[in-house]
Amino acid sequence: MEVRLYAYLRDTIPEAKKGPLLVDIPEDSTIGDLLAYLQLPDESNLIVMVDGIRQFNSYPLKNGSRIAIFPPIGGG
Questions:
Q1: pLDDT tens by residue, 3-54
Q2: Is residue 76 included in any domain, yes or no?
Q3: What's the number of domains the chain is made of?
Q4: What is the pTM assigned to this prediction?
């Protein structure tokens, strides 16, 4: 799977600054499993897009998916 991290999340995994991460986890893994594998901070508040569609932690992943992970967006 191709995983792209955005904003400060790229600082958590040095390889993410160079481009997408190629992650090999079992095909029946969920987004929650991926977030735990990557050890990202504040896992419950992250915005995760799979192939351009927002999904949540229980969503099952497939090989070849493109995943984008964003920190929470704030503003006023």
A1: 999 999 999 999 999 999 999 999 789 999 999 999 987 677 899 999 999 9
A2: no
A3: 1
A4: 0.90
**What pLDDT score does 75 carry?**
64
CATH number of the domain residue 49 falls in: 3.10.20.30
Enclosing domain of residue 19: 2-70
Measure the CA–CA gap between 58 and 45, rounded to whole angstroms.
14
Q: How far apart are CA 34 and CA 16, in angstroms?
A: 15
Q: Greater confidence, 14 or 76? A: 14
Closest of 65, 64, 7 to residue 40, by C-alpha = 7
- Reduced to 3 DSSP states, what percent helix, strand and coil does the chain have, rounded to the nearest 5? 30, 25, 45
**75 lies in a domain?**
no
For residues 73 and 45, is the Cβ–Cβ distance under 8 A? no
* Encoded tokens for 2: 């191709």
